[in-house]
Amino acid sequence: MDKSEIKEYSNGEVTIVWKAALCQHSANCVKGLPDVFNSKARPWIQADGADSDAIRKQVDKCPSGALTWYDNAK
C-alpha cells in the first residue's frame, strides 16, 4: 500500500475520505462501526453499511485525522 494514498468511499449522501499516511491503526472505526469499516474486507470501507449520520459521528472519532467526511450535496 502506498502511504501517500487517499481513497474516497461514498454512499451517495456522504463521502468518507481515508488518508493512509495519517492512519495510526487505533481501530476506533472498526470497533465503532464494523458494518462500514472492516479491515479484513476489500475495499475495507463499505459506505452503504450504515446511515450517513452514523458514519459522520464515527468518522469524527478518528484520533489521527486519517478519516474525514464531506456531504455530497454541498
Q: Could you tell me the mean pLDDT?
A: 94
What Rg do the Cα atoms give? Answer: 11 Å
Sheet with the most strands, sense and barrel status: 3 strands, antiparallel
Distance between the termini: 31 Å
The geometry reads as: globular
Strand order of the largest sheet: 1-2-3
Quote the CATH topology.
Alpha-Beta Plaits
Tell me the number of structural domains.
1
- Helix/strand structural class: alpha+beta
- Strand fraction equals 15-25%
Q: What is the top-level CATH class?
A: Alpha Beta
In DSSP terms (H or I, runs of 4 or more residues), the helix count works out at 2
Helix content: 10-25%
Which blocks of ≥5 consecutive residues have pLDDT under 50?
A: none
Gross CATH architecture: 2-Layer Sandwich
Quaternary structure type: single chain
- Tally of strands: 3
Order of secondary-structure elements: EEHHE
What is the topology?
Layout: E1 6-10, E2 14-19, H1 28-32, H2 52-59, E3 67-71
Antiparallel strand pairs: 1-2, 2-3
Structural commentary:
This protein is α+β, with helices and mostly antiparallel strands. It has one domain: Alpha-Beta Plaits, CATH 3.30.70.20. It contains 2 helices and 3 strands, in the order E-E-H-H-E. The protein has helices spanning 28-32, 52-59, and strands at 6-10, 14-19, 67-71. It has a 3-stranded antiparallel sheet with strand order 1-2-3, with helices on one face. The longest helix is centred in the C-terminal third of the chain and has 8 residues, at 52-59. The radius of gyration is 11 Å and the shape is globular. The protein starts with 5 loop residues before the first strand and ends with a strand. The mean pLDDT is 94.
